[in-house]
Design brief:
Layout (H helix, E strand, L loop, with lengths): L3 E3 L3 E4 L30 H10 L15 E6 L2 E5 L3 E4 L2 E4 L3 E9 L3 E4 L5 E12 L5 E3 L4 E5 L4 E6 L16 E3 L8 E3 L4 E3 L3 E5 L2 E6 L3
């Protein structure tokens, strides 16, 4: 099964092609380029090739705002207006397809996406940090992360270097494979971890911080 990850600290303004991105990228207008399915890095040269071939999609943060679910974080309070998302403590769980606009600052929090249908996360001046687990985990389907125009957003994985694998499923940022319970585990070893396709677009900026290796 493919696993898509975005790890190291990098600032991603979705304008132009002078950047490296782990999974997908956007063109000069902020529209998304085609994603990869192998988890390999997309370099500036690959982005340039995609632009030359016209391989872009038309989704944008502005286009998805109608009918969205709004999630606002203020201190320890998480306000959800709309369907498809719930919160427990500082964990936001998304269980239905749709568009979800996030704003505010969530410290030591996590977003879990648990649906095999497409989910769009619209980051609107949003920050999420976690020192114990991956801040964003997509467990099944396709996720689009869209950066709202003129916003600055942060996803920070503040875990230290990867712990010894002998610690198994009890270590930070891991899950146990149900088919091999107790014998096999899959690490959520990235700031943004996805079991499915992961796309990035929009006209804002995203700062990614990852210390888990």
């Amino acid at each position: 099964m493919k696993k898509n990850r975005i790890r190291k600290k990098v600032v991603l303004p979705c304008i132009g092609i002078g950047m490296m991105l782990a999974l997908s990228a956007c063109d000069a207008s902020g529209q998304m380029l085609g994603n990869t399915t192998t988890g390999s890095a997309i370099t500036a040269s690959k982005v340039a090739d995609s632009l030359a071939s016209g391989s872009t999609t038309t989704d944008s943060a502005t286009a998805t705002e109608n009918g969205k679910t709004s999630i606002t974080v203020s201190g320890d309070n998480i306000s959800i207006k709309g369907n498809g998302a719930t919160s427990t403590g500082k964990t936001i769980t998304i269980s239905e397809a749709g568009s979800y606009q996030l704003s505010g600052s969530l410290e030591e929090g996590q977003i879990k996406i648990n649906t095999d249908r497409e989910v769009k996360l619209i980051l609107d001046q949003f920050s999420i940090t976690n020192s114990k687990d991956a801040p964003i985990v997509n467990e099944k389907g396709t996720v689009q992360i869209l950066l709202k125009e003129n916003t600055e957003n942060t996803v920070a994985d503040r875990r230290s270097a990867k712990e010894d694998t002998d610690s198994g499923a009890e270590k930070s940022g891991s899950k146990t494979d149900d088919t091999k319970a107790g014998t096999d585990s899959t690490d959520f070893d990235a700031a943004i971890y996805s079991e499915g396709d992961l796309l990035l677009g929009g006209q804002g900026s995203l700062t990614l911080e990852g210390g888990y290796e």
